[in-house]
Design a protein that fits this description.
Blueprint (H helix, E strand, L loop, with lengths): L3 H9 L3 H18 L1 H13 L13 E7 L2 E6 L5 E3 L15 H9 L4 H8 L3 H13 L12 E10 L30 E9 L4 E7 L5 H8 L8 E5 L2 H8 L5 E5 L15 H14 L10 H13 L6 H10 L4 H9 L8
Parallel strand pairs: 4-7, 7-8
Antiparallel strand pairs: 1-2, 2-3, 4-5, 5-6
């Protein structure tokens, strides 16, 4: 029997196209056997022996057998029954066997309709699965940023993609819009982007013509720890925000300079790089509806967080199984979501 190193050496000698085909076959084999999901479940069990009650958060719970291969629990406090998947994106899913392949398609940046065709599922199912998964990522948004934080906004066109009740003529292309016509009409979304120098990211979508102090305060309120140095351009709203928050230090530079001529540590290079990456990340989706944009911002930040992991699919499943509020968030989201007719 060959060792793993010998197999690896033989694999590296194969043409690239053959390597890719073999990897696809192995991934499909894992998909059929549900190995990655099983590994993720085992990892979650190792992190916590019992799942806390998703209804009252009590840890005074006990296991009550298995149902269709899923661990069941009963809470001693609220006396409610629940399962290992209650509250997670995997709750009440009939086609769990296709989720590994679905995540693989998501990692490739495939649009909803293309994934639906690839996996032989409906477009509505593909849409629902994506946003169930993305609803679990809100738990990974950093609660606070500290030390040195670069902050700037990225302007995107306000998109009503999927809406069937537009009060204007539909656009023929994504760039076919006029910026902020009239005193009341808003046609842009500002993505407030705060980047800690160690790489932690906080992105918040705000529908606005031009960011005001109130909107910056709403986006960043409580997100900057005491003593944080906030680095921005010389937009007056950032200056006003910093003045109202004396526990943070504020350093500003001209946006066109990129780096302060007197202090090389004062720059916006990280945040500008993130904006470039974010545009690239969003491009394959051919426009994202602005009311769903925050989900995609969380997706981008999470992918960036786990990009160095060798087991990204497993990481996705572990993240989903460790959240208890994703299904509830998805239900709230669905109240405003678009029904996709297939």
């Amino acid at each position: 029997m060959k060792t793993s190193q010998e197999i690896k050496t033989l694999f590296e000698e194969l043409p690239l196209a053959v390597q890719n085909g073999l990897l696809e076959d192995l991934l499909m084999e894992q998909e059929l056997q549900g190995k990655v999901l099983q590994e993720a479940k085992q990892a979650v069990v190792e992190k916590r022996n019992k799942k806390p009650c998703p209804h009252c958060s009590s840890t005074k719970v006990y296991k009550r057998g298995m149902q269709k291969g899923v661990q069941m629990y009963r809470c001693n406090v609220c006396e409610k029954w629940y399962s290992e998947t209650t509250g997670t994106p995997l709750y009440d899913i009939k086609l769990k066997s296709k989720w590994q392949a679905y995540l693989s398609c998501m990692e490739k940046g495939m649009p909803i309709k293309k994934i639906a065709k690839e996996l032989d599922i409906s477009i509505q199912t593909s849409f629902d699965w994506r946003h169930k998964i993305l609803a679990s990522l809100s738990q990974y948004v950093p609660e606070q940023l500290s030390t040195e934080v670069e902050c700037d906004e990225l302007e995107l066109a306000l998109s009503n993609k999927g809406s069937r009740s537009l009060d204007r003529e539909p656009r023929k292309r994504g760039t076919d819009f006029k910026r902020n016509q009239g005193p009341d009409e808003i046609t842009t979304v500002q993505v407030v982007t705060a980047i800690q120098r160690n790489g932690d990211k906080y992105l918040k979508a705000v529908a606005s013509k031009r960011l005001s102090e109130q909107e910056i305060k709403k986006a960043l309120d409580g997100k900057l720890a005491d003593g944080t140095t906030l680095i921005t351009d010389k937009h007056p709203s950032y200056k006003a925000f910093a003045k109202d928050n004396p526990t943070i230090r504020h350093k500003a530079l001209l946006a066109k300079d990129h780096v302060d001529e007197n202090d090389g540590s004062v720059h916006l290079q990280k945040v500008n790089n993130v904006h470039s990456q974010l545009r690239t990340f969003l491009r394959p989706f051919n426009g994202v509806s602005s009311k769903y944009l925050q989900n995609y911002l969380n997706w981008y930040a999470y992918v960036d967080k786990i990009q160095n992991s060798k087991t990204t699919l497993k990481q996705w499943f572990v993240s989903m199984l460790l959240t208890d509020q994703a299904y509830h968030l998805f239900e709230l989201f669905k109240q405003n979501a678009v029904l996709i007719r297939t």
